[in-house]
Amino acid sequence: MIDGLFAGTKSVIAVATIASALNAAAQTIPNTTLTAIRGVTVGHATMPGRPTGCTAILVASGAVAAVAQRGAAPATRDTALLRIGSPIDRVDGISLAGGSAFGLDAASGVVHWIDEHVVGDRRSLPPIVPGAALIDLWVGGKPQIRPDADCGYRAAGAASSRPVEEGSVGAGAGATVGKMRGRDGAMKAGIGSTVIELPDGLQVGAIVAVNALGDVIDPRSGRVVAGIRNADGSLADARKLLRSGEGSMPARAGENTTIGVIVTNARLTKTEAARVATMADDGYARAIVPIHTTADGDTVFALATGTWDGAVDVTRIGALAADAMSDAIVRAATQATGAAGIPAVRDLRK
After folding, report:
1. In Å, how far are 15, 227, 229, 263 from 223, measured between CA atoms?
2. Do both 74 and 147 map to the same domain?
3. pLDDT tens digits, one per residue of 151-175
4. 122 and 13, same structural domain?
5. Whole-number CA gyration radius for the chain
6. What is the CATH number of the domain that holds 337?
7. Distances in Å between the alpha carbon of 207 and those of 6, 247, 345?
8. Could you please report the per-residue DSSP string of 246-270?
9. For 50, how many CA atoms within 13 A lie in the half-sphere containing its CB?
10. Which of 9-23, 30-44, 55-69, 323-337 has the lowest mean pLDDT?
11. The domain containing residue 18 runs over which residues?
12. Secondary structure class of 73 (helix, strand, coil)
């Protein structure tokens, strides 16, 4: 009996040793996503029953914020607060969601979670959480399932500083691309994230849920990563279709939309953050063709945490933001998994 107990103890010790080793190994893996920026946490909640969900980006000490919107049919919440001229210049987080206008309810859940968990001087103020949603209601065949306040609350509760989970999760769970010929030729996309860190300590990171009408293009190679499929499963290339006159774009207004967030640790004013958001939008144009169409509601939020005290060069930060955003868009496609009969990049490679 004693030997049996001892053997069990040794097993527990062995398991604990393995767990400790795995944790140590995980800590040695560099974080190349948005949460590498100190004070920024990200959490996802994916709805059961249909591919859709929401993603909460939280900033522990708040951040100066601005927005750029070039899509023709956005579904957003509280973006007026981020315009130049509004007295509000800081936010507590950003909510990204699927579900079209219904998904904007997720931001309320994020607000309630912050209200319950933030203490100190900021506790007396109502949390400010602007949001944006993309349309994925047709994916999975159950449009009545969409992100709500509970989904946002769970996403905020799951937020951590661990590397951001990418692919078909959270706001990217039902995201698709390549719908210029209609939904039958679409591919799955998702959510992607990356961060650029310079030797002087400046950080610029991005997270984006890609649900575009067009193709995802790798700007480094010019190659189509994901998008419109031909009948044989090959990629058609939206650029060629448009030049041939075939690009009829049958999607209805608002059925697409790419929504993303740029975060820098630099100290920016609201006006400077607005310029960074505008320049970050160039990352959309580099990696998605076509972009900002009548069927897209593309939105970019820009946040500045101000934890880095280096000299601010808005042009440099904006240029890096565009690079980070385009890289994150490519990752949103390459990290996606197929769902509801819609293939992802990894499915085409089989």
Report:
1. 46, 11, 14, 27
2. yes
3. 999 999 999 999 999 999 999 999 9
4. no
5. 21
6. 3.60.70.12
7. 49, 29, 19
8. -----PPTTS---EEEEEESS---H
9. 18
10. 9-23
11. 1-30
12. coil
